[in-house]
Design brief:
The protein is of the alpha/beta class and about 325 residues long. The protein has two domains: about 5-230, Spore Coat Polysaccharide Biosynthesis Protein SpsA, Chain A; about 235-300. It is about 50% helix and about 15% strand. It is built from ten helices and seven strands. The protein has helices at about 20-30, 50-60, 75-85, 105-110, 130-145, 165, 180-185, 210-230, 235-265, 275-300, and strands at about 5-10, 35-40, 65, 85-90, 120, 160, 190-195. The longest helix has about 30 residues, at about 235-265. The protein is elongated. It starts with a strand and ends in a 14-residue tail after the last helix.
C-alpha cells in the first residue's frame, strides 16, 4: 500500500544518534496526520548501528531497515532506499542529527501541495570548519554553472522529491551530490530550494574528507558527458576526430605547398620529412582517424540495444 511519505536515512557508524533521530521524526510526522515509513540503510557500519535499527523496528513498526555487507558509499545507500520506498513524497536526510526533522512538514508541503518535483535544502548557516565550507562553496558554484540549476547547496542531504522522481534515478560513485542535475536531465525541472537549519554534530565524527570534492568534480564531468553523448557518441568523438584530422591535413598541405613554392623560386629549403611540424601533422591525422573509429564503435554499442530509454514524467 502506498504511503504518503517515505523518509530515507543512509547511515554509517551512527549508533548513538539513531534512537534520538527516530523519536524526533515520529514526533514531528505524527502531527501531520499522514501515513509514512522510515527507511534506514546501514552502509556496512562497524559499530552497533544495525542492532540499534533492529531495536527501533520493534519499537516503531514504520521503520524498515537494510544492511550492506560492507561500505559502498552514500550513493549506493540512497539508490537502495529509492528502489524500495513507497511514498508519494520522499525525503532524504542524514543520520547524524545535523539535519533537523522539524523541516519535514515544510518540505512535504512544497512537494505535495505546491507541485515541485524536487526541493533541495540550503544550509545557509553552517556549523562546519572553513576547511569544509570554503571548498563546498566553490563546488556548489561550479556545479551551478555547469548544470544551469540555481541552487546554493547541491550537497545538502536534506532533500524532498515526488515519489515518481526517485524511481527514475540510479546512483553510483559520488552521484548523490548531483541528484538535482540527474532529475533535470530526466525531465523533472521544477526544482526549488528551502533554507534549512544546520545543527552542530552531537555524536561521532564526520565520515567525509576533502577527497570527496575531487571525486565530485569527476562525477560532474561524467554526468555531463554521459547525458549528452550516451545515445550519440559519434557527435563527440566525430567532432574531435574531424578537428584533429583537418588540422593535420591542412598543415601537411601547407608544408607541401611551401616546399613546391620555394622550389619554383629556387629557394633552398628543408625536406618536408625533416621538419618537426610534419610529424605533428601526421600524429593529428592518425589521432583523428582513431577518434572516428572510436565514434563508430560507440554508435554500434549504443545501437546494440534497440529499445530507447524513455522517462515518463506524467501519466493519466
Amino acid at each position: 500500500m502506498k504511503k504518503d511519505l517515505s523518509i530515507i536515512i543512509p547511515l554509517y557508524n551512527e549508533e548513538e544518534s539513531l534512537p534520538e533521530l527516530c523519536a524526533w521524526i515520529s514526533k514531528v510526522v505524527k502531527t501531520m496526520d499522514i501515513s509514512y515509513e522510515i527507511i534506514m540503510v546501514d552502509d556496512g557500519s562497524s559499530d552497533n548501528s544495525w542492532k540499534v535499527i533492529q531495536s527501533l523496528w520493534e519499537q516503531y513498526p514504520i521503520v524498515r531497515g537494510f544492511r550492506f555487507g560492507r561500505n559502498y558509499g552514500k550513493s549506493a545507500a540512497l539508490d537502495l532506499g529509492f528502489h524500495h520506498c513507497e511514498g508519494k513524497v520522499v525525503i532524504t536526510m542524514d543520520a547524524d542529527l545535523q539535519d533537523s526533522p522539524d523541516e519535514i512538514p515544510k518540505l512535504y508541503d512544497m512537494i505535495a501541495n505546491k507541485g515541485y518535483h524536487l526541493i533541495s535544502g540550503w544550509k545557509q548557516k553552517r556549523h562546519d570548519p572553513i576547511s569544509k565550507t570554503l571548498p563546498s562553496k566553490l563546488f556548489n558554484k561550479v556545479t551551478s554553472i555547469f548544470s544551469g540549476i540555481k541552487l546554493h547547496d547541491f550537497n545538502c542531504g536534506l532533500k524532498a522529491y515526488q515519489g515518481k522522481v526517485v524511481k527514475t534515478i540510479h546512483l553510483y560513485g559520488e552521484m548523490h551530490r548531483y541528484i538535482p542535475v540527474i532529475s533535470k536531465q530526466n525531465g523533472f525541472s521544477k526544482i526549488g530550494e528551502l533554507i534549512v537549519e544546520h545543527r552542530a554534530r552531537k555524536y561521532g565524527v564526520t565520515k567525509f574528507g576533502l577527497e570527496r570534492f575531487i571525486y565530485g568534480f569527476l562525477d560532474l564531468l561524467s554526468i555531463s558527458f554521459v547525458s549528452r553523448f550516451k545515445k550519440r557518441p559519434m557527435h563527440f568523438f566525430g567532432s574531435l576526430g574531424t578537428l584533429s584530422f583537418m588540422m593535420g591535413f591542412c598543415i601537411t598541405v601547407w608544408l607541401i605547398w611551401e616546399k613546391l613554392h620555394n622550389l619554383s623560386l629556387h629557394i633552398q629549403t628543408r625536406d618536408i620529412v625533416d621538419q618537426p611540424l610534419f610529424f605533428l601533422s601526421l600524429v593529428a591525422i592518425v589521432v583523428g582517424v582513431q577518434l572516428f573509429l572510436a565514434g563508430f564503435l560507440g554508435e554500434i554499442m549504443a545501437n546494440t540495444n534497440k529499445k530507447e530509454e524513455y522517462i515518463i514524467t506524467e501519466e493519466i
